[in-house]
Amino acid sequence: MTHVPDPFKEAREKGPVLNAEIQGKTIPMILGLRDVRKAAKDWETYSSDAPRRVPIPSEEDVRSVRQYPLEVDPPDHKAYRKLVEPFFNRPKLPEVQEQIDTLISRLLTAALEKDEVEIVREFAIPLQSHALTYLLNVDEKEAELWISWGIHVFKEGDGEQKGSFMENYCREMFKKAETHPGDDFFSALNQAKFKDRKLTMEERLGYANIAFAGGRDTIINTIENIIAYFAENPKALDCMNAHPEAIHPAAEEFFRFYMPLTHIGRVCPHNTNLHGTEVEAGERISLCWAAANRDPEFFKDPDEVQLDRKPNPHVSFGFGAHNCLGAHHARVIMRSLIRQLSQNVSKIQIREEVDLIETEADFSRKVGYELLRVSFTPR
Amino acid sequence: MKGESPGGSSARILKWGYFAEISLESVKLVSDLAILSEDFTNTGEYTLVFSQPSTLRNMAKITFKQIDGSSRTVEAGDGTLMELALDNGIDGIEGNCGGVCSCSTCHVYIPQEWMDRVGPATNIEQDTLEFSENAKSSSRLSCQIEVSDALNGLVVEVAPHE
Ligand code: HEM
Ligand code: FES
After folding, report:
1. Distance from CA of A62 to the nearest CA of B (A)
2. Same domain assignment for residues B46 and B14
3. All residues at 6 or more sequence positions from A240 whose CB lies less than 8 Å from its CB, including other chains
4. Same domain? B138 vs B108
5. Ligand 2 pocket check: which of B84, B106, B146 to mutate, most ligand atoms within 8 Å of Cβ?
6. Per-residue pLDDT averaged across A292-299, rounded?
């Protein structure tokens, strides 16, 4: 079923905050769009200066480093962010967009030649991994190893072991780039200066960590959800084919509706009253992007996919200083995917599906698929 | 099926999913000319509102006053004012959030005499503008403004960056 219900509907009707039990603690989740946006801007009250504790659940067991620039507050945040911006802007270049088009075309052609394709392993993960090599400007061969890391580096299988494997891999990549510098992400970070000093290895690993972990399941799940949506709504494929100008708004609606990242944390440095809930200094709150994206005050019929929804002020890429650096990359991939699917595929049939569900004590939410076996019919 | 007389100015397809009962041919046939109204969801009926086919439409000319004082006049096709600016490399319009009303890097000022025709900002747009230091009563986010013939001759001023 591609029609993902909103697990926060009832809670949102009751009030602005859902007190959820997560990892044995109560985390107040902010649910409304306006409130989430306000809190995301107010870094003095809701801080990101919390190594390994910005994601919810926290990642203290699965990584040793602070992620940059995610886990830093302004004003330093700006300088940290600037160092990697040129890489995250690469998807704006026509030649990088062409690389992504070619990659998707290759994967889709292979998929059309087969009777059945398992989208997660044979399509989404390879697509995400290869596309990331273009963003980081590294040899495309590196993708082969990354593919073996699965849907989520930390959450799938033995996260602790995989997390440290990934850190070691990145450490090696920085060392290699030290002896053979190039135009790649690792070399650039080796040379980068933060306030007139070089970055420490810790910091460099922190940048690499989020590039690999943060941009992974989000992209993979979105690809799966888009393919499953078109499988269940074949006319939408025809319409996208007839109306390529509708691809951009459609991509935004997929980002809104299937938001793969339910929420993210902030730490309150001071005792804070959050709409009546007392938060003690040092404790966390959640900005619930997924709930904000279904706020009926701003989205008419929020539980419906409306591919031409306008305005569509979703917060799938966050809001404020930390807004997603990978958004350009994500958009280029999804727009190309929608365009190429609509041009080359007339029908998608689901043969077997296993949902990937995120479960906490107070809510559970479908974010993607563990397995999605489909057949494509060429147009 | 209900028909409405020609004259509507926008051609927009609502709710892709509801084409189920119409053959693809007819969708293609009407797609340039028609909107399927939301009635279709409730009543199963749909309304055709004819617009001018895009080829017959006069292209609106829109002028951007850039931050350095220079002006650029460009011809508008479909889409939003922000997309128009990006397509034409207008200085100072970045459209970082992709047009979802959350970054303010497409902030413009609309001359008083055009405010009525351009229309007011929605609540969420006003909220976004509130975070912007350079917001004035004439502020709009250009990603929330659809280009149309009605805007022919509009001159907008690109707002300075924060
Ligand atoms: C559909 C895909 C994606 C979604 C939904 C998504 C979502 C988000 C969100 C909500 C934030 C804000 C976090 C906060 O406020 O604390 C964020 C930040 C970030 N994302 Fe993404 N992301 C996606 C893809 C990517 C990709 C592909 C990459 C990298 C390759 C990436 C890298 C980052 C980085 C580095 C930040 C931190 C920015 C900062 O702190 O200034 N993201 N993302
Ligand atoms: S493009 Fe971001 S607010 Fe308009």
Report:
1. 31
2. yes
3. A246, A247, A250, A307, A338, A339, A341, A342, B16
4. yes
5. B106
6. 96
